[in-house]
Amino acid sequence: MDPHFDGVIFKTHAAELIRRIRRPFPPFRVVDARWRGEYEEGHIPGSFPAGPDGLNSLPPGTTEHTELFVVGSGPEDPVMRNVSLSLQRLGARRIVELTGGMVEWRLAGGPIETGSQPKAA
Length: 121
Prior knowledge:
Layout lengths: L8 E4 L1 H9 L5 E5 L3 H6 L6 E2 L17 E5 L6 H12 L4 E5 L2 H7 L14
Parallel strand pairs: 1-5, 2-3, 2-4, 4-5
């Protein structure tokens, strides 16, 4: 990762996150910005539920080298930015928003997990 871009909030598409899941380097975590009920109905495997109000601490296992992919309900969901900014305030250095949210993820054929127990990415 290029330290010149630390603190910048990036955007990407589902295809890039699917690629990263297949080849998980550098380390990353997926942070789900949706309401808990939406998360439990179906989320990206290994994602960490943040909820639309953001977080009080970084997801477990996050280091200064961890990329954090933030996903919301649909295209340009405003709660993604709220969660991204809370991650930034907590010291996250590399934040990437999934522009199409779970709508794009499902259309791209990304894997879906149900339930409420987050797993390590």
